Amino acid sequence: MLDWIKNINKEHPEFWKTYLAKFESKSNRYVILSTETTGLNPKKDVILSFGAIAVVNDVVVIGDNFEVVILQYKYLHDNGLSNEFLIESKLPKLAEYNAIQALVEYIGNAVLVGHRIHFDIELINEALEKMDCGKLKNEALDIEIMHQKLMDITNKSFSIDDLVKHYKLPLSEKSSASDDAYAIALLFLKLKNRLGFK
User: Fold this and answer.
1) What pLDDT is attached to residue 1?
2) Alpha-carbon span 62 to 161, nearest angstrom
3) I need a surface site. Which of 5, 16, 18, 35 has the fewest CB within 10 A?
């Protein structure tokens, strides 16, 4: 709540100033975001990869995507975890600072959509705080909450696979952040249509 006090007289990086300026206009672009993390604690866990894809005018724009693996060698080493997946991954690899900057530049002022998106945003905000930036300003929509609203269910949670099966979408063989982002994009279009919002 008192984040603005922390940011008084703080000199923000240029990319952050550019990002903030984008909110003078509204976007018609949705960015479907999926993150792979080491756990569920935003204070202790870290982001391992991002997968994102855009939806514009109810169309998944395959060419408008973002995918990166974040080099978290120190975290993995300190916690005795393997870094084999980092080494073997064919995806672009960036240090956390560069990956977060690239993500912020990619999302711009788009509406963020995800599965339990508020957790993803919390982790990104933790990383942004270390970078002398503020918090993300993007609106956010959660497909799990959209599904609960549509079905009038509040006491049950649903995984991405649960939702994919419920809406009869093809299941992906492997599950990377990008595979999840694509599945979430298809689910979002179905839910958006059924809930009747533009």
Assistant:
1) 46
2) 21
3) 5
- Paired strand residues for 31: 54, 112
Q: Name which of 69, 103, 65, 67 is nearest 89 in CA terms.
A: 69
String of DSSP letters for 66-90? EEEEEE-HHHHHHTT---HHHHH--
The model carries a pTM of: 0.88
Strand partners, 113: 32, 141
Where does the pLDDT of residue 74 fall: very low under 50, low under 70, confident under 90, or very high at 90 and above? Answer: low
How many other CB atoms are found less than 10 A from the CB of residue 166? 13
Closest CA to 31 of 153, 124, 131: 124
Of 40, 50, 49, 46, nearest to 79 by C-alpha is 46
Give the whole-angstrom CA distance, residue 119 versus residue 7: 22
* pLDDT value of position 81: 62
pLDDT band for position 84 (50/70/90)?
A: low
Q: Give pLDDT tens digits for 131-162.
A: 999 999 999 999 999 999 999 998 999 999 99
| Cα 64 from Cα 181, distance rounded (Å) | 12
Q: What is the CB neighbour count within 10 angstroms for residue 132?
A: 13
Distance CA 4, CA 2 (A): 5
CB 93 within 8 A of CB 86: yes
Half-sphere CA count of 78, side-chain side, radius 13 A: 8
